[in-house]
UniProtKB/TrEMBL annotation:
Organism: Halodurantibacterium flavum
Primary role: With LigD forms a non-homologous end joining (NHEJ) DNA repair enzyme, which repairs dsDNA breaks with reduced fidelity. Binds linear dsDNA with 5'- and 3'- overhangs but not closed circular dsDNA nor ssDNA. Recruits and stimulates the ligase activity of LigD.
Swiss-Prot/TrEMBL keywords: DNA damage, DNA recombination, DNA repair, DNA-binding
Protein name: Non-homologous end joining protein Ku
InterPro entries assigned: DNA_bd_Ku70/Ku80, Prok_Ku, SPOC-like_C_dom_sf
Length: 266
């Protein structure tokens, strides 16, 4: 049974339209979450907005958005002001343009979502848009209101469906030259490259989701399960102290010793 969609609308390319559903491609539903409690009473602690000067609670109707223009000086924005800048349609993914799939760097990718046709009637229109993008090596660019904000989104064919990636805003992506610009573009010695390639081959293994497992989450679940049964929390296995890296100046010697260590480990 497919998970429930969190968004329903239409995919549109010129005069071609089809009903679609969209769901987040990732989830944090299984993450351990805590509530803040009063240790003395065991009751939940609730949070609320209070006036920073008077300390009195502020009613929902009295809360407004404010853009700072100076110390304790704000431009107030009402709900009507915010509605004026929203897209006219929040339920249509209207593909404005197409760009080469490899022209958008990974750093622009934000959140992935699975897009699928909502019914059999729209499957043909959906599949022809998807297959045309795949055949031309392009991705679609559109704008959409998601998570209460207008976002640029990228539509990328994947298997029998389409992945909709929200894209970072332009002012969120930092210029790599600010960090890498001073690094020398020196080419390593061929002998060093050969040894590093051997080291990579020694450690190469197929990707598996378990490689991205969360050991802290697993440990928390163990502790919670033990406390539910009234037992003491399981003893934590003492980790071996991390070996301090040798201050090796000769890279060639370090690589040779690394390869020897890999062979011994196997």
């Amino acid at each position: 049974m497919a998970p429930r969609s969190f968004w329903k609308g239409y995919l549109k390319l010129s005069l071609v339209t089809c009903a679609v559903t969209m769901s987040p491609a990732t989830s944090e539903a299984e993450k351990v979450r805590f509530r803040t409690l009063n240790a003395k009473t065991g009751n939940r602690v609730v949070s609320r907005y209070v006036d920073s000067v008077s300390g009195k609670p502020v009613k929902d109707d009295d809360q407004v958005k404010g853009y700072p223009r100076g110390e304790d000086d704000f431009v107030l924005l009402e709900d009507d002001d915010l509605d004026d800048v929203a897209l006219e349609s929040t339920r249509t993914i209207d593909i404005d343009m197409f760009v080469p799939a490899d022209s958008i760097g990974w750093i622009w990718y934000d959140k992935p979502h699975y897009l699928a046709p909502a019914d059999k009637v729209g499957q043909e229109a959906f599949s022809v848009i998807r297959e045309a993008m795949a055949a031309t090596g392009t991705v679609g660019i559109a704008r959409l209101v998601l998570y209460r904000r207008e976002r640029a989104v990228m539509l990328k064919p994947r298997g029998n469906g389409i992945v909709v990636w929200t894209l970072h805003y332009g002012d969120e992506v930092r210029d790599k030259d600010d960090y890498f610009g001073d690094l020398a573009p020196d080419k390593p010695q061929p002998a060093l490259m050969k040894l590093v390639k051997r080291l990579i081959e020694e450690r190469k293994t197929p990707w598996a989701p378990e490689m991205a497992s969360d050991p802290v989450q697993e440990r928390l679940l163990e502790i919670i399960a033990a406390k539910k049964k009234g037992r003491k929390r399981p003893a934590r296995s003492k980790a071996k102290p991390a070996e301090q890296p040798d201050n090796v100046v000769n890279i060639m010697d370090a690589l040779k010793r690394s390869l020897q260590a890999e062979k011994k480990g196997k």
